[in-house]
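Objective 1b: paired records.
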Amino acid sequence: MSGEQDAGGFIQGSAPGARGDSIDLAHATRASGTLRLPGSKSISNRTLLLAALAEGTTQVRGLLDSDDTRVMLEALRKLGVALSPGEHEGDWVVTGAPAGFPVKEASLFLGNAGTAFRSLTAALALGEGNYRLEGVARMHERPIGDLVDALRQAGAHIRYEGREGFPPLAIGPCAARANAVVGVRGEVSSQFLTAVLIALGAAGGGKRIEVAGELISKPYVEMTLALMARFGVRVEREGFRAFAVPAGARYRSPGTAAVEGDASSASYFLAAGLLGGGPLRVECVGRASLQGDVGFAEVIAAMGGEVNVGDDWIEVSGRLPLKPLAADLNTIPDAAMTAAVLALFASGPSRLRNIASWRVKETDRLAAMAIELRKFGAVVEEGEDSLAITPPPGFAGGAASRERVAVDTYDDHRMAMCFALAAFGPVPVRINDPGCVSKTYPAFFADWARLVASP
């Protein structure tokens, strides 16, 4: 699609938020400035659920406005939770239902929002009602058997309505088992452990959770524990192997709960600062952040960037070519996608490992990333839990080409956002279905246009 170049760094072929269309990115030469990040999706949906389960009224500040948070808000409304907008944009007032959700029978459509689907499955399954949970076709391909098995150990009644181990689910009243030990597998998704922890905190606790296998994405569990503590439930733990939710646990509103900026979304702009010289600063995440993806700053430094970090900001400067990266990125699986695109600009091969969780995300991200990187001339070896990426010769600082590369996004917001970085290379870039970014960052392309300069 052709169009007139916008002053802010992309060629306007279609509205950036349109679904099923495309956007052509102008060749990027510099990136600098300051960005106040939208709220964290992971913290937003956890905070909404905790507030809904807590005694009292919570003022939620800075909630992310995106597809995934709208899914959670709509589900909580259908379950009878009192919700109303606050005085300022991004603020919500949530009146908790500590005795359980008022609506005891409901059918919930949860799209492709994994944080909403997993956590609500657990919260509802340890309650008293009858519910049906479904989502888009891709959600019905994302495994949930490990979570269901864990909840059944606690007395939950859950039935698969389709393929065994996958949504949609039918949930009945729980027959709680006193002093049960709940085993949760940790290799597929840390969201399963998060869901059980939050649900047990609302169901009175008194149970021990044991993790089988190696737990992935540990920082997300740390985030969950910190947020539960804000709402008055402190979990005892033995590292990442076992957790005990105290008997008599119940959530109490902290009064106000602020949502920090999204560290995964920060990765795209930190990477832009590295490729485009900088300095580029992101605000609302930093040294004091709850999110593991602030660790992406270490990736930037390893690839040759200059990084400065404050309590609630990170600033990056850099230059090409980048240093190759060889790293275990298990703790930052979402931001790791950004590192894969940065590998196009490295002076040699990079290897990203321990990222098997990519296969059960919004799409099979290992396969999708390999396909799209090859379109730019990279040699990519796709392993079961790794990617080895040899960049095309001359990609960093090479002469501009007229041949455009169209990136398919697989209805995956992170594919669209991380491949915007390829615009710093010599090949014109088209992003198909740019509206998929509405899942977590509807304003992404507008912010990109403001911070990224073109000739």
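Objective 1b, second protein:
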Amino acid sequence: MKSRTIIRWILRLLLGICFVWAAASKFQDPLAFAAAVASYEVISGIWARGVVLVLPWLELWVGIGLMIPGLKRGSAWVVWFLLLGFIGLHLSAWWRGLNIECGCFGAMGMLSGYGMLFARNSLLLLGATILIFLEIIRHREQKAGGSH
């Protein structure tokens, strides 16, 4: 097995586990997740309830989708955009001086301070970026190999 294949599998597995775990923690305690969404002071009312209802399912499906051949590339892109959005939300909360509960992984995922949140999400974003890059390379190699 080529090293790129191993790296792709490891990244898909790690990112998939993170997103399934995040979804499971939100399903386990939806009230805590709703409070976390409210603490960002970005959306409220029906929009906040929509995030509380939809985001855990989205995280679950992209986490699983990373392991399904026909869904892995699209799931990697959704993960990438979600992580970019999460980083943006954390930066916004930090900039506005809010004391937030992340809401990312429930009680087990509590991190102390914005620095740890940025570090974790930046590492996950880097992993998703590398995964997407490796998937693009693999796809191009398959196309080039198939055209001969």
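The first helix runs from residue 3 to 28. The helical segments are 3-28, 30-39, 45-65, 72-95, 114-146.
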